[in-house]
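Why does residue order matter? Because the sequence determines the fold. Keep that principle in mind as you read this record.
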Amino acid sequence: MRDFPVFVPWRGEHLAAVVAVPEGRPRGLAVFSSVPGSPRTHRHQVWARAAERLGDRGIASVRFEFVGLDDSTGSSVEVSMAVSPLDQILAVTRFAQRAVGVDPLVAAGNCLGAQAALALAAELPECTGAVCMLPPAVRSGAVWGVIERAQGGRIQVRLRSNRFLRRLVVRPLERFDLKVRPAVGEPLLRALEHARVLFLYDQSNLASRSRAFPKVRAIVGKLPEPHRSRFELRVLPSRGLQQFATIDVQETALEALVEWVDLCLPEDQVSMQALGSVPAGER
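Structure:
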């Protein structure tokens, strides 16, 4: 496998990226978006290690940083969880598709990167899968939103600081007044029309995020069976996924990621492309 550092033009800025190309004709492309960590490799070189393992399986990859982060130019003020940076990940994806000459792809990321990967999967029919690590799936509903804003947040502080009120008011509201965030729910439903989507969490999230799981499963459960069967929410047996904090969590995350990408990019796609299909980036 060979790595090619590049800068991808985007709205007058340049997004720092690395295109990894395996020996022989790639059977597909994996797109990794990085949040702050090590430049273009993520924390503890996780994306670089994923690229190497996928390269051994004949899968090309591109890993990049959003505008204003690490070596990408521009201002990080534009980085926000409120809006998925679809145009940035799309620019990098089209560049990489042209560079390696493939059409099918899988998107992967964590946190904001997970949200961007989901948006890309929804946008591109040639995206056959997405791996979303710790996607921020839910937000407080209208009732809790009013409480959070009331008196500059002082009421929320009082409710949380009182043990009796926390049990009587806060916990029921947090359990029942959660809504799936539009930035996650809407692209998830669109992506499942054609792509396999994996949501990855770990043991640390069982307490803090487990209330989100039924909400996500509920919206997926309303879909037709072929769409529902493309979704999986998996809780890894390790802890520390948010920071890739231990060797154990790095390894379990990498195994899950590589397994999913491998599943979504079957080897028979190589022979189909060889018959003359044009990569989507050149259309």
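The CA atoms of residues 213 and 233 lie 8 Å apart.
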